[in-house]
């Protein structure tokens, strides 16, 4: 692997101080040519220069490919024999978890897998367009039964609340945020259009959305008024994380939703894909639904939890942050995920390549 492709990951998550490897060949115009400069011999000589005065105390790796490196090590360990019993006094640090990552491919692009994906793409694009057209044109009350015929699978757990009557305000569905499809899938399960609160949805996505959307301004007073107006009309869905997370972690929940209503129903959303991730932090987000439906058998699991009791809401004197933390914890427990204190801003800082390391610490509360 070229050094530049692994250096950041190895330093941030494996806690390395120095990374030595081959280099990408760059032409005089500053573009990578696709060739790699450096062989095992030249790389091992670079490693040896790091230890001019002291020999490395321990070498880990495959004997077939690492023998030149092992020749300068005092001790050698080869998989699958790495364990607490045979690495003696050497303490191997636990790798830090990867929480934020980007890119569309959901599978490792080995030669055979890459060929399979390339062969599937023409059929996947056509299948995706068919699925999207069906979702746009047909009523939601039949989509839950029609989805299996198009290769999509939706599993519903728990009991959803009944539609509101004219005498009370709507229910606020508080969902985990896996993809941009979360509010739409919830509407399909409930068989009625539930308006969704959005933070940074593109204008094209709003136009193409089969359900109503409510764009927030991130100005607390203005957004609170929008929440109240929509809840006075009926049910509403919000994803307090503010952005999607692909890994089994939940980002920090905004506490704004807890200030506005006591009729809160947590909903645990989870999905599985085959070839393509349905979300990306960069690029054109309007393509997210297309990539989701390009998967051979996209899968969604929707779990309804009980409405929060009065003693768990702000009406009992709890702060909005406490309510948000509680909802985050019970949703994480339902999905088997881990809570973090990371925000939408932290995600974009990490994916932008900022020196600040934010993707390696997780907390149960914030």
Automatic annotation (TrEMBL):
InterPro entries on file: HAD_RAM2/GPAT1-8, Plipid/glycerol_acylTrfase
UniProt-annotated location(s): Membrane
Keywords: Acyltransferase, Lipid biosynthesis, Lipid metabolism, Membrane, Phospholipid biosynthesis, Phospholipid metabolism, Transferase, Transmembrane, Transmembrane helix
Domain spans labelled Phospholipid/glycerol acyltransferase: 171-272
Record's keyword annotation contains Lipid biosynthesis: yes
GO cellular component: membrane
GO MF, one annotated term: phosphatase activity
Transmembrane segment boundaries: 114-134
Record family assignment: Belongs to the GPAT/DAPAT family.
Protein name, as recorded: Phospholipid/glycerol acyltransferase domain-containing protein
């Amino acid at each position: 692997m070229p050094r530049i492709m692994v250096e950041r990951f190895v330093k941030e998550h494996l806690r390395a101080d120095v990374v030595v490897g081959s280099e990408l060949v760059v032409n005089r115009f500053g573009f990578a040519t696709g060739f790699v400069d450096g062989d095992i011999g030249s790389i091992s000589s670079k490693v040896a220069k790091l230890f001019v005065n002291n020999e490395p105390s321990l070498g880990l790796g495959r004997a077939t490919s690492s023998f030149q490196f092992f020749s300068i090590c005092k001790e050698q360990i080869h998989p699958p024999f790495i364990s607490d019993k045979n690495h003696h006094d050497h303490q191997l640090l636990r790798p830090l978890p990867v929480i934020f990552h980007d890119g569309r491919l959901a599978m490792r692009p080995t030669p055979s897998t890459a060929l399979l994906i390339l062969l599937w793409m023409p059929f996947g694009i056509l299948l995706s367009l068919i699925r999207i057209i069906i979702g746009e044109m047909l009523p939601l009350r039949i989509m839950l039964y029609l989805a299996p015929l198009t290769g999509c699978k939706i599993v519903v757990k728990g009991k959803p609340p009944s539609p509101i009557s004219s005498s009370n305000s709507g229910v606020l569905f508080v969902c985990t945020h896996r993809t941009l499809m979360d509010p739409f899938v919830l509407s399909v399960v409930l068989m009625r259009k539930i308006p969704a609160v959005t933070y940074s949805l593109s204008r094209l996505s709003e136009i193409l959305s089969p359900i109503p959307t409510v764009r927030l301004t991130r100005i607390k007073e203005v957004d609170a008024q929008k929440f109240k107006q929509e809840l006075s009309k009926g049910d509403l869905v919000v994803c307090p994380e503010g952005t999607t997370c692909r890994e089994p972690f939940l980002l920090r929940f905004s506490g704004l939703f807890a200030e506005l209503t006591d009729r809160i129903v947590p909903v645990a959303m989870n999905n599985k894909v085959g070839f393509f991730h349905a979300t990306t932090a960069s690029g054109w987000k309007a393509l997210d639904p297309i990539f989701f439906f390009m998967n051979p058998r996209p899968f969604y699991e929707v779990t309804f939890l009980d409405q929060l009791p009065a003693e768990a809401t702000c009406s009992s004197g709890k702060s909005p942050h406490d309510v948000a933390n509680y909802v985050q914890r019970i949703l994480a427990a339902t999905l088997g995920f881990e809570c973090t204190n990371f925000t939408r801003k932290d995600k974009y800082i990490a994916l932008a390549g900022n020196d600040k390391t934010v993707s390696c610490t997780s907390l149960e509360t914030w």
